[in-house]
């Protein structure tokens, strides 16, 4: 463990100690509201409404109206009582984060003193009060699905295609844990991988979203973590093991027809896939929770997980990196042991802890930490015979922090969260470069360096289609982010109609990334040799400290059947860096040109209005409309990478592309305007319908501009120039359990197009001699038709069987008529084949050693579908073969989908009430 990790662990222990005596809060809470009436429909004044087992409650006003705020999400029981009336306990009331659950109660006259009536709440099959598209998945629902991680849950929602929300680029989603961002500002991706065992609730917002949420263009994912129960100790354990089961598919026969000639050939589909190892993929996880011993009013939750995935690819160690072959005479000298080992793996230790304290009246305090230590290796098929030569990736992530939720009155509370997000990532074969001299930017590779023993990775087209047979991957990259986040908000039920929330968010980040010394062929002492380039442009770790901030106000209006969510958000960003004052003289190296000097980047301030309206026009149907402006900064790695303009001091015509794309710390936020209009209806008691039409106008996306200097030479740099739009609709149908069967079905149609799928597209076209002028074409992920269907057959405390069908129409690709200049046809004018995948989970409740237990089996890709919108050859549209060279068959099985995978496991759980 490095010194950095030790410091983080010590800091974590100190904060945990503080948490036991004071702080923190899970800010994700819901609201319970409604009216209490008597049998004649008259309001009951001062009736008591209480969430059973908690201190959350309220009394009704003159109109019989009550509002209870800050209820943690989950299923609760509610007791309603009034003098002279039967007490009523309503069980199974579902409370969701940032949502109002309406519960109207009618009390009957009391006939027998102390009489209590217990009823079960009936949850609406669809929430007709929502003003946009929000999917909320509860803990029980997650447990029934064939999913393992948060990302699996998200990808099952309507409008989401492999992480793309309604046609947006990757990295346009805000991931939050208990209401606070866990995105890495380097690339706008989540720093955490959350197992389903720690999730209490998942909210996926794929439509417009409130002003409380920012730094997102396409959607928000909010994961609410479980908490300990003050009234009982609970423990659970789960284990599963599995592997890919695709008999006979180590290779597959392909029939091709070229020039009227039919041919059948065998290609590698998934080598060694027939070798079954039931522990190739394994997961252990355990949790314990309950009241904290010897500390009154305090609960805890601890969770640990070990996950191992040896992947679907295997390598044969024929060669070692230190082998030496004669490539001129095609003489290869393998000395490997021939062992079959994983080609690409993922091994992770994950941990979570949460301590909550409510000893101080009207104050709930919390401390939590979530993190993982991970080592993995990408499945680079080029290293299939020399697996020891490939680089490995190590990752450490930690999100921890303190917070407080303080209730000032029944109608007013405030919350404050302080978080630290740490992320440390490295990608290289060896960290140590050997004994380097103290000075010098270009030095020979020392003899004690492990890289020197084997040299760079080399392969030959005359051996297994270019497989690497000696040497190491020389790539080296590190990325470290240390962010501090402060987020606070005040929530007030100003009147029975207006629930107002106002708050702020501040984030400071220390972002480091780059090459900790580059190993490459260099001219040193007049000859070319393998050397180390360090402490210079492109071969050093650079460090930046940007600052982000936001303030917002949101009004949730609940007036009769009308629901309005209106808000305004202000975003602030300061890159805290410099750019050239004159981009036409970027390095200030052009004689007699106007002077160019470094100037500070400007602070960016934008305003983002949000509005959502839902109006029920029938007792069980509503129309809704929402509109909003949404801003997000591009990943900060793009801002700052290659942002030292002194590399252009020798820029001349003819070498415009040699320096790549220059960074630009003065970028503006990307911008999207979203519109959504829809219809929600409870068609019957057990059938709900949700139809949503949407349009997104996307501007100021990250792209490339070419700047001409005073000497007529040009260079490329990042700017806000790309654009696009998305339009479409989703239809969701929910059928609540009738008997033992429940089903859901959602269909999405969308058209996502713009001038570039990748921000580098314009630069790549120019560098290859193609016309760089923008043309509107479908985005690479433009999956026009998406269908998800779920069927659950369940008998409580007995069995559960869940099946999921996912269908996706073909995504676009660019066809070609051959190779060379002008071979490509219109960009993304071809379409791949449709794909269909079925997943299954079956479980049976058992009793084991007096504990409740469940045995389960999960089958992914039940029918062993080989193709799921993967890569295809541009001249054939097939993943199997290309015509150039003639009838060249695919040597790379990564083009195919994951084969059938089976996992078998058991979960154990138990609880014990606390003795008072």
Overview of the molecule:
The chain folds into 3 domains: about 5-120, Carboxypeptidase-like, regulatory domain (Immunoglobulin-like); about 135-230, Beta Complex (Ferric Hydroxamate Uptake Protein, Chain A, domain 1), CATH 2.170.130; about 235-580 and about 595-915, Maltoporin, Chain A (Beta Barrel). The protein contains 6 helices and 58 strands. It has a 22-stranded antiparallel β-barrel. A 5-stranded mixed β-sheet has the order 3-2-5-6-9, with no helix packed on it. Strands 10-17-18-13-14 form a 5-stranded mixed β-sheet. Strand 15 and strand 16 form a beta hairpin. Mean pLDDT is about 85; it is low at about 1-25.
At a glance:
By secondary structure, this protein is mainly β. 5% of the residues lie in helices and 51% in strands.
